[in-house]
Amino acid sequence: MSSPMPNPVSRATPSPPKPLDGRRFDGIVLERGNTSGDADTLLFEAGRFRSTACDRYGYGDGPYVAIVQDGEIAFHAETESEKYGKLRWHGTVRGPRLDATLAVMRDGAVVVEKWVLAGEHQT
Question: Which range marks the domain in which residue 70 is found?
Fold first, then answer.
């Protein structure tokens, strides 16, 4: 009698949680030279990143990559709008503070760069 074939699904290990999943940061998006800007909430959930300030321009969420090193979390993400192109996000989380840049990309070139300053949402 032969033994049953192993089930590859039963041996699969779940992927590790992303270090920013479940975190939310409230802040502001600033253009170079400006001291005021648009309110924004940055959300990290299930391995995906979203900026609420970009919702009105048709940008959805996108996958993010995060690396923890020396008590900081560096992250990178890309979101896309059919009408406006891609946004490339690069940022660092130190404790409850998030600092990031976003580059507006069109035809593979940066056309605008903005900054995001945010703090972790307190419930």
Answer: 17-120
Residue 11 lies in a domain: no
CA distance 51 to 42: 5
Contacts of 80 (CB under 8 A, 6+ apart): 59, 60, 62, 86, 87
Provide the 10 A C-beta neighbour count for residue 55. Answer: 14
How many angstroms separate the CA atoms of 117 and 29, rounded? 7
Divide the 123 residues of the chain into consecutive groups of 10 and give the mean pLDDT of each group.
50 66 96 89 97 95 96 96 95 97 92 94 80
Question: What is the CATH number for 63?
Answer: 2.40.128
- Residue 55 φ/ψ, nearest 5 degrees: -55, -45
